[in-house]
Amino acid sequence: TSVSPPARPIARVRPLTCTETRRGDRRVVHSLGDGAVHVSAARHDATFGFSAVFDAGASQEAVFEGSGMRQLVELAIDGFSCTVFAFGQTGSGKTYTLMGPLAQSETQPASPALLGLMQRSFACLLEQSRSRGSDLALSASYLEIYNEQIRDLLSPGPPCALPLRWSKTRGFYVENQLSVDFESLEAIVSLLLQGSQRRRTSAHALNRHSSRSHALLTIHIRNRAGHQSIIPLTRVPQPSACPSKQGTLCFVDLAGSERVKETGSSGELSVEANSINRSLLALGHCISLLAKPRGKWTHIPYRDSKLTRLLARSLGGSGITLMVACISPSSRCLSETLSTLHYASRARRVTTRP
C-alpha cells in the first residue's frame, strides 16, 4: 500500500441553520472547488487551501469517499498508526461528521445515508479484513477527557478518572483502560453508541447538544498469529514480544472551541469551556511548532495537556493523520471560522515519519 501524506487536512462547511437564517446571518464562507475555501466579509478576504473541501450539499458518503478515509483504514490494517480528528467551533458539525445524527441509538438507528465516518470506516475495516482473508483480532477502547480528567466510556459503573502514564516503549498511555473485542459491525456500533451516550454534553446558546469533553475511540488491529487470544472485556494488552503488524485507527471528536460571552455559559459550563479552550490552545501551539521547518524547533510541549499527550504520536511521531476542519458559514461565526481555517492551514506543513 502506498503511504498517504502524514497530515491531510480537509474542510467541511455545514449549511446555515434555521436560527441563523431567521436571524439574517450572511453566508461568508464559500467553496471554490479544487480544495479551496474563500472567506469574504468586511475587512476579511482570504482563501485557504486544503486536500479536499466539502460544501453544505455534500453527503456523508461523499465525505467518506473524498476524504481518503478508505485508504486510511487500509493503512491501519497494514500496521500503521492512523488518526482522524474533527475540530472547529461548537455547533459546527464535528460529531455529525464523525457519527451522524445525535438522536440515534441501538433501538433507533440512523438512516444508512446519514451515518458518519466512524460507522462507514468500521464497515470498510470488516469488509477489508474478510476480503484479504486476514486473521485479524479487533478490539476497541473509548475514552473522554473531561476537565483534564481521563474517563473510560466503556467501563461499567460511574466513570472514574484513569492515570496517564509514559514509558520509553509505549510513549503516553492510559493505565487500566478497558479494551473490548469485537467481530461484527453490530458489535462495534453498539460500543460506539453506548460510549457516546455516557459522554458529557450540555446545552447553551450556540448548541443544544454541546460536547463538553474530547472523545477518543481507538480500534486496535492485530494479527492473531503469535498472539494469545484476548478474553472480551479485558484491559488493554501489553505489547507482545512476537513481531507482527499492529495498527490502530483512532477517531477523535474534539469539544468545540467557544467564547463564553457568545454561549452565555456560567458556573460549571464556564469552567468546562475554559478547560476545553486551554487544551485546544495547547494542541494549536504544538501544531504551530511542528509546522516549522525541522531544525527550527527543539521541544514540542506535548505535556501541556492530556489531549496533546494522547495525540503526541499522531501529530509528531509515526502516525498518519486526517484532520477534518468543520466550519460554520455564518457571518456571526466569522472570528471562530477564521481561527479554525488558520489552524488547519498550519497543520498542512506538519511532517511525520509514518
From TrEMBL:
Q: Any idea where the Kinesin motor domain is?
A: 6-350
Q: Name one GO molecular function term.
A: ATP binding
Q: Transmembrane ranges? A: none
Instruction: Give the keywords, sorted.
Output: ATP-binding, Cytoplasm, Cytoskeleton, Microtubule, Motor protein, Nucleotide-binding
**Subcellular compartments:** Cytoplasm, Cytoskeleton
Q: What is the lineage of its organism?
A: Eukaryota, Metazoa, Chordata, Craniata, Vertebrata
The record's InterPro entries line, in alphabetical order, gives: Kinesin-like_fam, Kinesin_motor_CS, Kinesin_motor_dom, Kinesin_motor_dom_sf, P-loop_NTPase
Keyword Protein biosynthesis included in the entry's annotation: no
Please name the Pfam families in this protein's record: Kinesin (PF00225)
- This protein's record includes keyword Cytoplasm: yes
Q: Where does ATP bind?
A: G88, Q89, T90, G91, S92, G93, K94, T95
So which domain of life are we looking at? Answer: Eukaryota
Any one cellular-component term (Gene Ontology): microtubule
Q: Which GO terms describe its biological process?
A: microtubule-based movement; mitotic spindle organization; spindle elongation
The record's similarity note reads:
Belongs to the TRAFAC class myosin-kinesin ATPase superfamily. Kinesin family.
Q: What is this protein called?
A: Kinesin-like protein
Query: Gene for this protein?
Result: Kif12
